[in-house]
Design goal:
Blueprint lengths: L6 H15 L8 H8 L3 H13 L3 E4 L5 E4 L8 H8 L13 H23 L2 H10 L10 H14 L2
Helix pairs in contact: 1-3, 1-4, 1-6, 1-7, 2-3, 4-5
């Protein structure tokens, strides 16, 4: 069973890998990343707002402005990215839940813990290395699905 990413998660990872892969050119503008990765610009702006709020990226205003990574790509883990982009799950605080429902909740919590551990093991640098090993020489020319698919592949391989 493959791990499915939401469109927002997929685009967010793609944009961050684009930033990590193309470091050195200063901040990148959302419209540049949107064009390279074929992501709707308005949607990407919303994604970057969440990533900025989670301190994954830094935004700089002005003519030479744009977004850059808040820290080294090796220090940005997919767990941090997913936490910024994945909606918080509402906890069910029912006290009258049947015992079997409680058992399923415990097992599901264990699965989520394992998933979080896997996300902690994958950095943006890991994804960049994987892109290089696949011969993707510039994120500009890759198919939009390629990088997100690689993230999904890394998650399922480590699981």
């Amino acid at each position: 069973m493959a791990v499915k990413l939401s469109r927002e998660e997929q685009y967010g990872i793609m944009a961050l890998v684009d930033l990590a892969y193309n470091l050195g050119g200063g901040p990148a503008q959302v419209r540049q990343i949107a064009k390279r990765q074929k992501i709707p610009q308005r949607f990407l702006e919303q994604i970057f707002a969440k990533l900025r709020q989670a301190e994954v990226v830094i935004g700089k205003r002005g003519p030479r402005g744009g977004y850059s990574l808040a820290k080294d790509p090796n220090d940005i883990r997919l767990e941090e990215v997913m936490r910024a982009l994945r909606p918080k799950l509402q906890e069910d605080n029912r006290t009258d839940a049947p015992a079997l429902a409680e058992l399923i909740d415990v097992v599901w919590s264990e699965i989520e813990g394992s998933f979080q551990s896997t996300l902690r093991d994958v950095s943006l640098e890991n994804l960049c290395d994987r892109a290089r090993s696949l011969g993707i020489t510039d994120v500009d020319t890759s198919a939009p699905e390629t990088l997100a698919q690689e993230a999904s592949n890394l998650l399922t391989q480590n699981h």
